[in-house]
């Protein structure tokens, strides 16, 4: 009987200790839920990078995030991000400025539903360190390159992936860091500005490249982004170029025909999100989350080799410089789906998140919690012993 008593007692104490070790027990007391609007998601998405924009009127419902900045100031690692079952999520802080009351944080969400709102939560608390999950390499693990286009120095920008495909500018402040669609961006002057990272080749594999642009009318064949290889045979090109007020995607293999999508209006001195996708035999193009232009076919055998990627110019030409702003360049060696591109547009324009109210989580102290467990155990254990005794007597 004593063995039964102590076994049940220890089991109950273990139960209470396990319950206590929830994410909230790390010390975070304040949280706000963020519902990802299923109406802006066309298909279920796995490991999707959600952008959380915080300011005095953010998200679909115009949430005032000022109390978050008032609580933790510029200490953005005093935050934690969890999914609906309390599992911690990896995040990257692209921009955080408590004086301006503005921040942009990328969070990798394991599953985003198209049928019901996916709910995550942002926890925050002064002096509680959540930096263990501040890991850009984990957020962007599936990407070949992600450039937020903010200055690392006046002459360089960084790649947030573990591939370290950092970019070098023409010279200091050429191009120049400016305010972008998401935090900071780079403004190209159309004369000699260029940024040069290096990306490994993909042969005939799929790939996608997307970014935000803001420019006016261009000359003929100005390149917004271009990957060009002239050392191998065949010579190859993949990129997005602008002519006048239109943009289009291109692919080229010197042994085959030059392929280009139909021009789409997107240069009106406001920000637009553009994506070019090589998808098997097809070349697809998107503007502001929607398919744009005619899908080009017949590119399954086109070769692309290791090559430098140029932001702002076609590398091998004396001209071809783009004039305007580029922001948030993302390069992935898969063919992104229309649903993924559409949801990317929505989250990056801050039209995916619906914020709840900031809530204070009131928790008992560990001593209070264990004391309550002891009291309940002292009540339940005799009851269980009595039940066991009665059962044995009836036998």
What secondary-structure arrangement, pairings included, does this model have?
Elements: H1 2-20, E1 30-36, E2 45-54, H2 66-72, E3 79-82, E4 91-97, E5 102-112, E6 118-124, H3 136-139, E7 145-153, E8 156-159, E9 167-169, E10 176-179, E11 184-189, E12 195-196, E13 198-199, E14 207-214, E15 218-229, E16 236-244, E17 246-253, E18 259-260, E19 264-265, E20 272-279, E21 282-287, E22 290-291, E23 296-297, E24 307-311, E25 323-332, H4 338-348, E26 353-355, E27 359-360, H5 366-394
Antiparallel strand pairs: 1-6, 1-26, 1-27, 2-5, 3-6, 4-5, 7-8, 7-25, 8-9, 9-12, 10-11, 11-25, 13-24, 14-20, 14-25, 15-16, 15-24, 16-17, 17-18, 17-19, 20-21, 21-22, 21-23
Helix pairs in contact: 1-5
Describe the structure.
The chain is of the alpha+beta class. The protein has 2 domains: 29-135 and 351-360, Sandwich (Immunoglobulin-like), CATH 2.60.40; 145-333, Jelly Rolls (Sandwich). 18% of the residues lie in helices and 39% in strands. It contains 5 helices and 27 strands. Strands 7, 8, 9, 10, 11, 12, 14, 20, 21, 22, 23 and 25 form a 12-stranded antiparallel β-sheet that branches. It is elongated.
């Amino acid at each position: 009987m004593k063995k039964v008593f102590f076994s049940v007692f220890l089991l109950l104490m273990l139960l209470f200790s396990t319950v206590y070790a929830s994410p909230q027990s790390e010390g975070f007391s304040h949280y706000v839920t963020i519902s990802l609007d299923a109406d802006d998601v066309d298909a279920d998405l796995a490991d999707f990078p959600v952008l959380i924009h915080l300011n005095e009127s953010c998200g679909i419902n115009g949430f005032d995030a000022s109390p978050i900045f008032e609580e933790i100031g510029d200490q953005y690692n005093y935050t934690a991000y969890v999914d609906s079952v309390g599992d911690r999520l990896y995040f990257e802080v692209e921009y955080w400025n408590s004086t301006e009351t503005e921040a942009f944080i990328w969070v990798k969400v394991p599953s985003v539903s198209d049928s019901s709102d996916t709910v995550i939560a942002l926890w925050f608390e002064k002096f509680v360190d959540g930096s263990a999950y501040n890991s850009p390499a984990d957020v962007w693990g599936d990407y070949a390159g992600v450039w937020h286009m903010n200055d690392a120095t006046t002459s360089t920008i960084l790649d947030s992936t573990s591939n370290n495909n950092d970019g070098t500018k023409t010279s200091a402040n050429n191009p120049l860091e400016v305010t972008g669609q998401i935090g900071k961006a780079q403004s190209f002057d159309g004369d000699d500005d260029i940024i040069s990272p290096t990306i490994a080749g993909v042969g005939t594999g799929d790939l996608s490249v997307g970014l935000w642009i803001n420019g006016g009318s261009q000359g003929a064949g100005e390149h917004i982004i271009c990957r060009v290889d002239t050392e191998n045979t065949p010579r190859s090109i993949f990129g997005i170029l602008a002519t006048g007020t239109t943009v289009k995607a291109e692919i080229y293999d010197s042994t085959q025909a030059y392929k280009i999508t139909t021009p789409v209006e997107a240069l009106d001195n406001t920000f637009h999100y553009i994506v070019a996708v090589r998808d098997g035999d097809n070349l697809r193009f998107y503007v502001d989350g929607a398919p744009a232009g005619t899908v080009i076919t017949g590119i399954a055998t086109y070769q692309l080799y290791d090559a430098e990627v140029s932001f702002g110019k076609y590398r091998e030409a004396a001209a071809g410089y783009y004039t305007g702003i580029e922001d948030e360049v993302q390069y992935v060696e898969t063919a992104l789906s229309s649903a993924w591109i559409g949801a990317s547009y929505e989250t990056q324009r801050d039209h995916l998140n619906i914020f709840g109210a900031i809530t204070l989580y009131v928790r008992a102290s560990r001593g209070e919690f264990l004391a309550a467990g002891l009291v309940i155990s002292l009540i339940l254990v005799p009851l269980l012993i009595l039940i066991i005794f009665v059962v044995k007597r009836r036998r």
